[in-house]
Amino acid sequence: MFDLDRWQEIWMTITHNKSRSFLTAFGVFWGMFMLVVMVGAGVALERGMNSQIEGFATNSCFVWTEQTAEPYKGFKKGRSWNMENEDIPALINKVPEIQYLAPVLFGGGGTNNVTRNDKVGSFSVKGNYPSYNKIDESIMIKGRYINDIDIVEKRKVCVIGERVLEVLFPNNEDPIGKNIQVNGIYFQVIGVGQHTSDINIGGRSEETVVLPFSTMQQAYNQGNIVHFLAVTAQPGIKVKVVEDKIREVLKDRHSISPDDKKAVGGMNIEDQFTMFLYLGIGIASLIWIVGLGTLLAGGIGVSNIMLVTVRERTKEIGIRRALGATPRNIITQILSESIILTLIAGVAGLMLGVGLLSLVGMALSQGDQFFKDPQISFGVAIAALMILLIIGTLAGFIPANRAMSIKPIEAIREE
């Protein structure tokens, strides 16, 4: 049953010395406020990082050629070599752990290299396979991406980025089916891609013209050279395993020493993402350690002020004991005062922290941000309040025991 008189008594006790209660509560308030802000900031950092890599395969690696670092089979150190078209089926057959394999060509860049009528622009040019869009995804806002038929028939088609669309097709003109010139050769636009991640391979994706890989080789007389390989591993397979096997196959096919660690360049994206994952876990752990430490410090302050309160009310407690107050009554009163003081301060800190995160989120809502949408989940808020309740209870436990150790006769004599 709700005892109004008891709660009024508790509230009067808390507000009896406003300055002391305020200073004590401020420690808890500040601890909760800092915990909420730091957790929200950690969430915003994680979301910002995830938005930068959205649509990019985390189980991927990239391989390219470098000069050899060791002599081998009559070849001198420092030899340049190239990957070739024939390496693609060889890798697929000898490395079954590969999920997607996409050869890439770069080139065709330059000043005003892409034109349409009187519109001109300087853009990057890439030759891709359809499988590349499985590794580094572009959302098609118009038309379609390159397909297998484009590769087989070596069609003169292209996919353009958003910036290319703005320059060559102003006033919201539909580009699909229209022709553009790329280094003097006409290509028909079949799609407009919107890049989902902020990772750019070979230039900014919004400023890139993508051609079918086979078409680019033929149109620009690039022979059978492959500049770059993008690869993903089968589910459950470490990318490191795939990367090592690809290196072995390429070294064997191109007469490169098995011990040469520089001839085949590469970048393991899975390792990079794992590093960021561990970094995020470390930041989150540090935030909670610091936040809980601050809350605990506030709880110690509450415990100290309750000990002072018990000392000041020694005579009152003795009289109540003499009049028949049970130990449970005394303990309940002290614990209630501690919990209420802690919860009031904690909820105030929680509300202010959530409000501040909302304001920061609105301020950062415009455009792509590395620090994105700072907030805490409902579950985290409930967990923080439960922790606060535990701290408040523990803070009142020692003063309650101190109150119970007071003997009624001695307390009544206390001046």
**Helix-strand sequence:** HHEEHEEEEHEHEHEEEHEEHEHHHHH
User: Please, how many helices?
Assistant: 13
> Beta-sheet strand percentage?
15-25%
Mean pLDDT: 80
Helix/strand class = alpha+beta
Characterize the largest beta sheet: strand count, sense, and whether it forms a barrel.
12 strands, mixed
Low-confidence stretches: none
> What is the distance, rounded to the nearest whole angstrom, between the alpha carbons of the first and last residues?
36 Å
How many whole angstroms does the radius of gyration measure? 34 Å
Q: Based on CA inertia axes, which overall geometry fits?
A: elongated
Number of E-type strands:
14
Q: How many individual domains?
A: 2
Helix fraction, binned, reads 40-55%
Structure description:
- By secondary structure, the protein is of the alpha+beta class.
- It folds into two domains: 4-54 and 274-413, no CATH class; 60-269, no CATH class.
- 53% of the residues lie in helices and 17% in strands.
- The chain contains 13 helices and 14 strands.
- The strands form two sheets. Strands 1, 3, 4, 5, 6, 7, 8, 9, 10, 11, 13 and 14 form a twelve-stranded mixed beta sheet that branches.
- A hairpin with a 2-residue loop joins strand 4 and strand 5.
- Helix 11 packs antiparallel against helix 12 (378-404).
- The longest helix is centred in the last third of the chain and has 44 residues, at 269-312.
- The radius of gyration is 34 Å and the shape is elongated.
- The relative contact order is 0.18.
